[in-house]
Amino acid sequence: GGTTGGESVKGRTKGGERKTGDAASPETKPETEAESLEAKAKPEDRWHSAQSLNASLGSTLSRVELMVASGSDWVWARRLMASLFWLSWISLVSGALLVIVRSPECNPPPGSTGGTTGIKHQLHHIKMLHMRAIIIGPIHQYKPDDRNKTNLKSIDMIYGNIQNFRYLIKSANTRGIIFFLLFVGDNIHNVFLQFGNPYKGHIVSLVSENLGKLIALIMFTLPGTPIIYYGDEIGLEDYQVITTLPTLVTSQLGFFKKELESLKYGSFRKVLNETTYFAYTRQWNAHGILAVLNFGDTIHVDFTASGLPLTSLLILSSSLGLQCQIVNMKNLAIPSLEAYMLKYYVLD
């Protein structure tokens, strides 16, 4: 149409009203993001999505809030969280199944009911536990009521036979495992008579009381494990019991053997070896023990000439028991039939 008053008519609205200008009026502009989303989606789709979300949340939300919650960003967030949940659950189940499959069998192999054969089948499992030694026994043949049936060269049929035992030892050695046979000395006194018996062989019955103390000191200070027949530690004689000082000396020697590293791990060095007296050292790092045993008359010895320090600590005397006395090693006097244990330190 024509123009009136210099104004152009852009067109008419559906209701017959005129719209002028290129921009829409402020009243028709969407006010919120929810209204913008609502304007873009189809009405029926937006309504069904909002109703489904409202039912899943179990709460009553406004139509605008439901439109925002059903947006594409929230939908992807919910899908991502659901995916992570199921992935975590599947990973846990898979890990549990893997542990069950990789675990060793609990049931023993068929045919292994114990004895040497049963141990042989378990060597692989024992090696996996990083064990390096096995103690078994006693497995030798014996009868508690018949001492003549004891045979240390054969194996009781309950545990197998000698061939199975040898095969067990060979299989263990290939895996670096050592076997120790536990020995219980019941009803075998006819085999080991050299250890003594209740009727003869006690130290106090063989030598004098003072020499018995010297022998006890030698056994507890030399390298190795001291072995004595029961009764010798209390001065037991053949056929009778007497109360003597070896009781105290033996208990004190046992204490030093347990506590002093020099007596447990120290190196052995012979200092003096004469006809009537004997001296040696046990040294570990800077700590040392000097044992002096005099089987003859009273003597005076210069131990500094053998490389020992000028002074030492006397900790035990065979006749006086425990001592704590600093002595001069330049001219040390040892009485007759006496044994000394002295402690010294080596200074760099």
From TrEMBL:
Any one GO CC term of the record: basolateral plasma membrane
GO biological process, alphabetically ordered: carbohydrate metabolic process; L-alanine import across plasma membrane; L-leucine import across plasma membrane; phenylalanine transport
Domain Solute carrier family 3 member 2 N-terminal: 61-111
Gene3D superfamilies, alphabetized: Glycosidases, Golgi alpha-mannosidase II
Single GO MF annotation: aromatic amino acid transmembrane transporter activity
Domain of life per record: Eukaryota
Region (Disordered): 1-50
InterPro entries per the UniProt record, alphabetical: GH, GH13_cat_dom, Glyco_hydro_b, SLC3A2, SLC3A2_N
Glycosyl hydrolase family 13 catalytic domain residues: 112-184
Biased composition (Basic and acidic residues): 28-48
Pfam families assigned: Alpha-amylase (PF00128), SLC3A2_N (PF16028)
Name under which the protein is recorded: 4F2 cell-surface antigen heavy chain-like
Organism whose genome encodes this protein: Callorhinchus milii (Ghost shark)
Upper classification of the organism: Eukaryota, Metazoa, Chordata, Craniata, Vertebrata
